[in-house]
Design goal:
With 649 residues, the chain is mainly alpha-helical. The chain has 20 helices and no strands.
Length: 649
């Protein structure tokens, strides 16, 4: 009974295969008949008939000219005697030679210059050619969609039949697996036969169907029926994956390569026992990735790398969530590093070779770098901050090394590759700061790094580095304003030191810009103006905070601490504005003088609206007197200096 079931299964499977093969042959013959050139053949026959008629006419005319005249007379009359020198009348002159084909005579139809092949391909341009859009849609529906749907229907038909046969025990487990292996193996040469006859899409579909049947059969043999061990099944699936990769390379088919890739990544799931096999799993994935690297170095199939990277990450994080333990930290970090190096290698090699990267390559570079950083952070933070910091710095150094190895872009090429790796190096170096440092040290490190980047950007005329430096300085400024630092004593405290370092970094930026004015554009000039103003703004904020805290906790001069704080601010702002005016007049800088005028305006508003209402009469008099005296001096300086010469902005 089992033999009959196997035989029925083979017949059922071979029937559609033979039917499709016959259909392909019939379609091929029908195409030849459809394109058979009947009109050209009829023209050839007509030309041959005309040529033959012309030859007969020529022979007849020559025979008439050489024949003797016929003498009418009685029937019994003797024929005239012919002189010996005259040729016999029955002997005809030989026919003239046939004229060459390339010199047609009047009335003759020239023959075609070459023989015609009745099986030749039809002309490229035909009157019956359809529009390209309609033809494309028809080809898409009839040639591809129906192919995929038909394959799916065949799979379902065979599946239902085999299930029915299995349920009725027509075919045993060994026969079932053998049928699947034979069927899948037979589809590969059949797909090659179809490819040779021009059915490329149909051939790829059959090859994919054969690979799927092989994977399913091996899975059934090792997992479902337990006919052989998982190791044997694993090895068999590796062979199938390698074979499909070879087929993809031989046919130059990216779709078959994708099928091989999915089959390779599906293999661990098909042979898994649900147990922890970290070394085997990750080693297999690395070998699969190396094979992918070899394929992409020979074929420019850019879609393989993103898919492989995504599937590898799914395996890594799936294993991590299920089986990771702290005891496996070192081994897991090693595998994570190897995965990072593997998927960083291909874009880097392509960038070194072509000096350019595709959009998908850029996505892989960014995703791979941050996925590796995320893995390190999850495994090492916060208990191992030093190792995490060193690994992040090493990652930054590697990106910087790649940026240095990049060949300089040619004329007209974008420096995107260089900027990408340099930006990643800068990003990871910056991220290493908050990983290791805390609080104020993060702010100070951001400010110092920002100043260094701006200085380096001006020296190397690299706008990208300057932009990164501006961003870090802005980040340090926001951190300093949002997260206050302690100030236990006047001036000598962490807060004042942080403001002093930030002001110093702003000064470095302004000085570097003045030394390289030719490299500064209009938009960047506006940003540098903000930094120049920020020097005085933050200096005034730092001094104001120090005086406010000092007089708030140490009231002097016998007045209330709140009044002392406001009086100290008024005096400080007036003195600072006066210093700005003096410096602006001396350097002929309109920017400094405008800052002084704005600050004087704040002092006037504060003195007239607040100090006049809350300060005591004596201190109110002092406040107004000092303000008025200073304003008169400033007005005199404007009258004397500014009006007599141009100002420098």
């Amino acid at each position: 009974m089992e033999f009959l079931g196997v035989l029925a299964a083979i017949v059922l499977i071979l029937t559609p295969i033979l039917a499709i093969s016959a259909f392909v042959r019939v379609q091929h013959l029908a195409e030849q008949l459809r394109t058979f050139p009947l009109q050209n053949l009829a023209a050839r026959l007509s030309a041959l008939e005309q040529h033959l008629a012309a030859l007969e006419k020529s022979l007849a005319s020559r025979g008439t000219a050489t024949a003797p005249a016929v003498i009418e007379g009685p029937a019994h009359a003797e024929p005239p005697k012919v002189a010996p020198s005259v040729s016999a009348p029955l002997q005809m002159a030989p026919p003239p030679p046939i004229p060459p084909r390339d010199i047609p005579k009047p009335g003759e139809v020239p023959l075609p210059p070459r023989e015609f092949n009745v099986f030749a391909a039809p002309p490229l341009h035909s009157s019956q050619t359809k529009s390209s859009s309609a033809l494309d849609l028809e080809t898409l529906i009839g040639g591809r969609w129906l192919n995929r749907i038909g394959i799916t229907a065949l799979i379902l038909a065979v599946t239902y039949f085999l299930k029915y046969a299995f349920d009725n025990n027509w075919i045993g487990p060994s026969g079932r697996v053998a049928i699947g292996i034979l069927l899948g193996a037979a589809m590969l040469p059949w797909s090659h036969w179809l490819l040779q006859r021009g059915y490329s899409y149909f051939s790829e579909g059959i090859a994919g169907l054969g690979a799927a049947v092989l994977y399913l059969s091996i899975w059934a043999g090792c997992q479902y029926y337990k006919l052989f061990s998982l190791d044997v099944g694993f090895a068999a699936m590796i062979v199938i994956t390698a074979g499909m990769a070879a087929v993809a390379l031989g046919r130059n088919s990216q779709r078959i390569a994708l099928l091989s890739l999915f089959g390779g990544f599906l293999t661990p799931v098909l042979v898994s026992e649900g147990k922890d096999a970290q070394v085997v799993l990750f080693t297999y994935l690395l070998i699969l990735g190396v094979g992918l690297l070899a394929i992409e170095m020979r074929r420019d199939w850019r879609s393989l790398t993103p898919i492989s990277f995504l599937l590898s990450q799914l395996y890594f994080w799936g294993w991590y969530s299920e089986f990771y333990r702290p005891a496996k930290l070192e081994r897991t970090i090693i595998f994570a590093t190897l995965f990072f190096l593997l998927y960083a290698a291909l874009p880097v090699l392509r960038a070194v070779r072509y000096s350019q990267l595709h959009e998908l390559d850029i996505v892989v570079v960014l995703a791979n770098s941050f996925a590796y950083l995320g893995a390190l952070y999850v495994m090492l933070w916060p208990q191992d901050r030093w190792p995490l910091t060193l690994l992040v710095l090493a990652l930054s150094g590697g990106q910087l090394l790649v940026a240095r190895l990049m060949p300089p872009p040619k004329a007209g090429e974008s420096p995107l590759v260089l900027l990408l790796f340099a930006g990643l190096a800068l990003t990871f170096a910056t991220l290493a700061i908050p990983i290791r440092l805390e609080g104020k040290w993060i702010t100070l490190a951001f400010a110092i790094e920002g100043a260094i980047l701006v200085w380096t950007g001006f020296r190397s005329t690299t706008g990208f580095l300057r932009a990164g430096g501006y961003f870090l300085l802005a980040l340090a400024t926001v951190r300093l304003l949002i997260f206050p630092l302690p100030a236990p004593q006047f001036l000598f405290n962490e807060r004042f030191a942080a403001y002093a370092i930030l002001i110093f970094c702003f000064g470095v930026v302004v000085y570097a810009a003045r030394e390289h004015e030719s490299a500064v554009g209009r938009d960047e000039l506006n940003a540098l103006g903000v930094f120049a103003v920020g020097i005085n703004v933050f200096a005034l904020i730092a001094l104001s905070l120090e005086l406010w805290d000092h007089f708030g906790s140490h009231a002097g001069l016998g007045i209330d601490s709140g009044l002392a704080q406001h009086l100290a601010l008024s005096l400080l702002w007036t003195a600072y504005a006066s210093a700005l005016i003096a410096l602006g007049v001396r350097r002929e800088s309109a920017l400094l003088r405008w800052q002084a005028l704005v600050l004087f305006g704040l002092v006037v508003v504060k003195v007239f609206l607040y100090d006049s209402s809350y300060l005591e009469r004596f201190y109110r008099i002092i406040s107004f007197f000092i303000l008025g005296l200073v304003l008169l001096v400033v007005s005199f300086l404007y009258q004397r200096k500014v009006a007599h010469g141009p100002s420098k902005s």
